[in-house]
Write a structure and sequence with these properties.
112 residues, mainly beta, Rieske Iron-sulfur Protein, 3-stranded antiparallel sheet, 10 strands, 0% helix, 46% strand, binds FE2/S2 (inorganic) cluster
């Protein structure tokens, strides 16, 4: 098990998500990270409806009222604080959360 630095905490602007690459179970994956209310949250960048990225590979994540993340494909709407889909074709399912550790302004995730 190793740790990967994702970005600086000070790089994150409330209401704006950014993507990052990481490795899990020997597979390269893409994550997204954002500042939600008073915490930093990260999820696998994969919709729970179909296996596509929430931003459609553009790097532009659609976030409304700073509380909901919307999939570009069919508008599944996820709470940014929990990852729970509250509206759309996968309502009731949640994005896969990636635990983060913050140390001295740096954000880290475990990688394997
Ligand atoms: S692929 Fe995300 S809502 Fe359909």
């Amino acid at each position: 098990m190793s740790f990967q630095r994702v970005c600086l905490e000070s790089d994150l602007i409330e209401g704006v998500a950014r993507s990052f690459q990481y490795c899990r179970d020997g597979v390269k994956r893409e994550g997204l990270i954002l500042r939600a209310a008073h915490e930093i949250v990260a999820f696998e960048n994969a919709c729970r409806h179909l296996p596509v990225s929430l931003d459609g590979g553009t790097g532009d994540f659609l976030i409304t009222d700073q509380n909901h993340l919307i999939c570009h494909a069919h508008a599944a709407t996820y709470e940014v604080s929990t990852g729970l889909c509250v509206r759309g074709p996968c309502a009731g399912l949640s994005l896969k959360r990636i635990p983060v550790t913050i140390s001295k302004n740096e954000i880290w995730i475990e990688e394997d």
